[in-house]
Amino acid sequence: MHKTILLAALGAALAGPALAADYHRWVDDNGTVHFGTRPPANQPSTTVTTRPAPPVTTPAAAASAAATTEDTPGAAATPPPPQPLDASTCAQLRGHLETLRNKPIVREVDPDTGEHITLDAERRAAMTQQISEQLQRCP
């Protein structure tokens, strides 16, 4: 159960830029606040706009990019190599990869409806590929 929740959280984290969107906020008759990508049919709602977090740049990476553009005028700076991941993140990624490879059924939470959806082979393969690529940044 915990791995399913962690896997759902990982899926949401990997989709970060795709999550920048307009959401709707409304309060139901019981006073519960809800958020969704579609406004409710019978409730007034307000639009909430989200933005992806800006990329994290270390001082060393910024200095390296500045030096690259100064050395060759008119040339585009090459992006710095991805930063290594910390041990805790690597351990979580390895656990998620093990789950994807070894469990016969893996579910994730649909961010729109909140219901659990069983991963199909295509989604499972895509997540396995994404995690494998991120694990290359682990020590």
Automatic annotation (TrEMBL):
Q: Does this UniProt record's set of keywords contain Secreted? A: no
Q: Where is the composition biased (Low complexity)?
A: 58-77
Pfam family name, one = DUF4124
The signal peptide, as residue positions, is 1-20
Q: Where is this region: Disordered?
A: 34-88
Where are the bilayer-spanning segments? none
Q: Where on the tree of life does the source sit, at the highest rank?
A: Bacteria
Q: Which UniProt keywords apply?
A: Signal
Task: Tell me where in this chain the DUF4124 domain is found.
Answer: 12-63
Could you identify this protein by its name?
Answer: DUF4124 domain-containing protein
Species source reads Isoalcanivorax beigongshangi
